[in-house]
Amino acid sequence: QVQLVESGGGLVQPGGSLRLSCAASGFTFSSYYMTWVRQVPGKGLEWVSTIRPGGDTIDYVDSVKGRFIISRDNAKNTLYLQMNSLKPEDTALYYCARGRMGYDYWGQGTQVTVSS
Questions:
Q1: Which of 9, 74, 97, 104 sees the fewest Cβ atoms within 10 Å?
Q2: What's 52's DSSP letter?
Q3: Which three-class secondary structure state does DSSP give residue 116?
C-alpha cells in the first residue's frame, strides 16, 4: 500500500534551518509529482512547493521563495524540503503529498515550530 512518512520537524529558533524528509513506499515514486503542503493551526492548508518526477521544481509559494528548496532522490524514494532562514510564520504541520493539482495520498505530517 502507498505510504508517505515525514520526518525532520522540530523546534528551531528564527533564522535557523531544518530539513524535512518524506519516505515513500508502495508505488513507483519516480513517476509522480510530489508536493509539500503545510497547515497553520486554525488556518487552512497552504501549498508550499511541487517537484516534477524527474526532479525539476515547479514553483514555491511566494512566502518561502529564496529560503526553501524542494528536492528528491528517486533512488531512495525520498522527498526533501530544505528550510533555511526560518521565520515564526513558518510554524506549521508540514505534509508531503503525492500529486500536483490534486493529492491522492498524504503523510501524517511533521511539526515545525519556529520560536525563540
A1: 104
A2: -
A3: coil
**In the chain, beta strands by DSSP E:** 3-7, 10-12, 18-25, 34-39, 45-51, 57-60, 68-73, 78-83, 92-99, 103-106, 110-114
Residues 6+ apart with CB under 8 A from 30: 53, 54, 74
What's the whole-number mean pLDDT along residues 48-68? Answer: 93
d(CA 21, CA 76): 11
Statement: residue 94 has pLDDT above 90: yes
Q: Which amino acid is at 26?
A: G
What are 15's three cell numbers? 533564522
Q: What is the number of alpha carbons within 13 Å of residue 113 lying toward its C-beta? A: 6
